[in-house]
Amino acid sequence: MTDLRSFVARVMNTLEAHRLKDDSGRYARYLAQLETEPNDEDVYGTADAAIILYTLNAMPTDSTEQKKWIHALQQHQVKETGVFAGKGHDEIHSTAFALFALELFDAKALYPLSRFNERMDKEAIVSFLEGLDWRNQPWGESLKGAGIYASLVLSASVDEEWEQAYFDWLRQNVDPITGLWRRSCVKNEDGSLVSAPIFHHIAGSFHYLFNLAHRKEPILYPERILDTCLSLYQSGELEVPIEPFSYFHIDWVYVILCCMRQNATYRREECEAAVKGTSQSFIAALAQLGEDSEEPLDDLHSLCGAVCGLAAIQLLLPELIHTDKPLQLVLDRRPFL
Q1: Is 254:310 a contact under the CB 8 Å cutoff?
Q2: How far is it, in rounded angstroms, from Cα 152 to Cα 15?
Q3: What is the Cα–Cα distance from 309 to 301, expressed in whole angstroms?
Q4: DSSP string, 286-307
Q5: pLDDT tens for each residue of 197-244
């Protein structure tokens, strides 16, 4: 078991360092944004900070402080369109990410999501999903395909019939060979890849799995997904990033975790070995960062991905990580990351 308490302390120091000094409750994603006048921050810094605190089991409990957080997030919404302004992702992603953070405080957007009005029709959402590039960009496009669900559901913009149309399309278009999305876009009949690397399809499918989990919708082929993941890992072809600050581990481990939750016995030892094998160097790197310095880390968004990855690992293999408080998997509360 690796003791990560020093790393958690460094993360808490990092959050304090990223907080703007104007008492607005806002956080900068990058430390350099604190030096600009006016501060060049966007919704990701504050949303990332909220998600990190939730994951570390350290959310503010004082009502005045909670209201400050809510206002800090809501002020990034553009009244005329309803979208939340964010840098580095498209407006569907930044809006879903902000609404997800607001939900941690049991709050919602101030204004209707008028930019997405055309997606609020059952036929329109089917057309939208059909139009995504599932062959070449399954990972990047999934931020749109999953983000539009999270945005419209978390803002209470659509009804149950719309949600069922969304889930019906996912069920009808899942690939029965790999268990991933989309049918006929992952592998050819001879087993060769259609276009994108298989991990891109795994990471893309990650985003649809948490939407299914939000409504307790079943995964059609959990065993095939696990087969696909294990085949990639056991072949030695899975590229685990050396850089610890990324979303790799939350994508990878959550996919395995979701499928194991539906079938707890299927190739269980192999699944646990795959998670352990891909996590050990990641956990060790974070432990070393905790021991090396107390200096704040620079990027809250990539840090958010790493901390969420730790939570998924601890949930599946609690013997690997020691923290004072159990980490909370934020995706078990609401969809989108």
Answers
A1: no
A2: 29
A3: 13
A4: HHHHHHH--SPPSBHHHHHHHH
A5: 999 999 999 999 999 999 999 999 999 999 999 999 999 999 999 999
> What's the burial of 183, exposed, middle or buried (CB within 10 Å: 0-12/13-18/19+)?
middle
State which amino acid sits at residue 55: T
| 238, 230 Cβ separation under 8 angstroms | no
Residue 116 near residue 151 (C-beta atoms within 8 A): yes
Whole-number Å distance between alpha carbons of 220 and 170: 10
Contact 303, 18 (CB under 8 A): no
Distant-in-sequence, close-in-space partners of 81: CB < 8 Å, separation ≥ 6: 113, 114, 115
In a 13 Å sphere around the CA of 58, the CA atoms on its Cβ side amount to 19
Q: How far is Cα of residue 114 from the mean position of the Cα atoms in its chain?
A: 24
Number of H helices, E strands in the chain: 12, 2
Residue 39: name the closest of 50, 51, 23 by CA: 23
Helix (H, G, I), strand (E, B) or coil at 51: helix
Model pLDDT for residues 24-63, shown as the tens digit of each residue: 889 999 998 888 766 667 899 999 999 999 999 999 999 9
In the beta sheet, which residues pair with residue 54? none
Instruction: Please tell me the distance from the alpha carbon of residue 252 to that of residue 139, in angstroms, as a whole number.
Output: 12
pTM (2 d.p.): 0.96
